[in-house]
Amino acid sequence: MTTGGGDTILIGMYDSPFVRRVAISLDLLGMPFEHRDWSVGRDFDRIRAYSPLGRVPVLVPVDGEPLTESAMILEHLDDLVGPERALMPPPGPDRRAALRLLAFATGAAEKAIQIVGERVFRPEEKWHPPYLERCRTQMRGALAELDKACAAAADREWLIGDRIGTADITVACFSTYAREAVPEPLDAFPALQARVARCEAMPVFRRYYAPFFQPSATGAPAA
Ligand SMILES: N[C@@H](CCC(=O)N[C@@H](CS)C(=O)NCC(=O)O)C(=O)O
Q1: What is the pTM of this model?
Q2: Is beta strand 67-68 parallel, antiparallel or unpaired with respect to 58-60?
Q3: Ligand 1 mean position to 58 CA, how many Å?
């Protein structure tokens, strides 16, 4: 399945932090794309025609097979623009610092999704409080690490280096998701909260924002 000519296509709704970080990255890299605002619940079959995994984001390039998994998509975008414009730093200390932040941000988002999944897919009487508590502890542990990094970078415009990069985009998108979907107020993480607020005020973050959509408990997966 290809685009059939025209622009690259990005599939998935912007309330997904994974879709959102890809959209923001495409925009910052000056890569035009068509957006398919498809829900993994409602549009499952349409999405699966492009990626049998049935998960978003899916990026459909003009000249090749669709890509899934936001980390791999972002790596591909960096490859396209080359090291000078890439959103990840080149190998070395900055890249290692970025990878560390990305790991904690990704872990926090995954734990947030597990908490939301328990709420959405299981009847309340079957919720397992120790599991939810464990996920919450893990998510908060990861957010606390991000908060420390944001505090250390408080006098810098960007988390790593002197321009916006994947770490800034991801930390903001994934923290916003935790705040809105779990919901986990970020008050306990003041430096992170301040940095997220600053990013969220930027036009490029506002352009690709959709409020968290709580899916129904009828089996429709999270958007
Ligand atoms: N590791 C994946 C996570 C993507 C993900 O979990 N997407 C969610 C939307 S936020 C999804 O498609 N969920 C539907 C499902 O997995 O069934 C990535 O980074 O792309």
Answers
A1: 0.95
A2: antiparallel
A3: 10
